[in-house]
Write a structure and sequence with these properties.
about 45% helix, Spore Coat Polysaccharide Biosynthesis Protein SpsA, Chain A, single chain, 9 strands, 2 domains, alpha/beta
Length: about 325
């Protein structure tokens, strides 16, 4: 029998200067059980692999051509000894030494829990717009949630929006029950392996738990092209899994840009005392609203009608 109750899997590619701090925080977790750290590397050349080994992590390799988010994580789990397998991305940092234990507690209390995911907190130096955007994410809420449909039949009868909410799962910071993963491994997809897995296990009758006590610092400052690409990928995923197309035509595109801009303006103004807001932030909010809705619109155009060319489709998915 393994001495490790839990395993932590980190997919890496040139982890950078912050990777040392991540490994240090993982090694210092206050857990009343044994755990191990595994790295799945896809071609680092900056010393990431050597650094991981100095911290005692086991390192496994996947070629860049074979890498996708699901396949890399499946490789990590296949080598893991733990009953519970946690995932964290290379640029996230656990807020405290209870990150791992807070997730594992949920499995120990309830045998029907298939997966747990944690809170994401923006870095202190994040822009007002980034903080405003993350405030709307399901991984920003302070309260714990259980996502349970009551059984496979109940889930399939729910409207698409409710199905999507119950399937929410985020592998930026998460943990899965290994026995459930053995039934339902991640799909080898370039994007959205976590939401796909969340839908699969909830539909099969399991629970997912959002545990905000398990928190990480994780945020990015993105550009306009990334916003278009990200929402294009999101739109394809939502249509594929739930038949949802939030921006199906040009009229809805205009309406959604106006609504999204207004929502972000109000949040920025409300958050002014917390971090300040300036005209540039408002301009960036407008840009984000436009780019995100254009991405969603193009995804809808790619859907049933197939009006987005294969070349543009490939370009929009690059780097996501």
């Amino acid at each position: 029998m393994s001495a490790q109750k839990a395993s932590v899997v980190i997919p890496t590619l040139n982890g950078g200067t912050g990777f040392d701090e991540l490994l240090g925080r993982l090694a210092a977790q206050d857990a009343p059980f044994g755990y191990e750290i595994l790295v799945v590397d896809s071609g680092s050349t900056d010393g990431t692999v050597e650094l991981a080994r100095r911290y005692g992590a086991s390192v496994y390799h996947i070629s860049p051509g074979e890498f996708d988010h699901g396949t890399a994580r499946n490789l990590g789990v296949s080598h893991a000894e733990g009953e519970y397998v946690a995932f964290i991305v290379q640029d996230a940092l656990p807020v405290d030494d209870g990150w791992l234990a807070a997730m594992v507690e949920n499995f120990e209390r309830d045998d029907t829990v298939a997966g747990v995911y944690g809170r994401q907190i923006p870095h202190p130096e994040s822009s007002p717009l980034t903080r405003a955007l993350m405030g709307d994410w399901p991984t920003s809420a302070p309260g714990r949630r259980e996502q349970f449909a009551g059984g496979p039949g109940h889930y399939r009868e729910m409207p698409p929006g409710a199905q999507r909410a119950l399937a929410t799962f985020d592998n930026v910071s998460s943990c899965v029950r290994r026995s459930v993963w053995e039934r339902f491994p991640f799909e080898g997809k370039g994007f959205g392996e976590d939401l796909r897995w969340g839908k699969t296990v909830v539909e099969a009758g399991y629970k997912l738990v959002y545990e905000p006590r398990s928190a990480v610092l994780h945020s990015h400052e993105r550009g306009a092209l990334y916003d278009v690409r990200r929402h294009y990928a999101d739109g394809l995923l939502l249509y594929d899994l739930f038949g949802l197309a939030p921006t199906p035509n040009l009229v809805r595109l205009l309406v959604n840009v106006l609504l999204s801009s207004a929502h972000l303006y109000l949040r920025l103004i409300r958050d002014k005392a917390a971090g300040g807001v300036d005209p540039r932030s408002l301009l960036l909010a407008t840009r984000y609203a436009l780019c995100s809705q254009v991405g969603a619109y193009l995804a809808a155009r790619r859907g049933p009608g197939g009006h987005v060319s294969a070349k543009l489709h490939e370009f929009l998915l690059k780097g996501i």
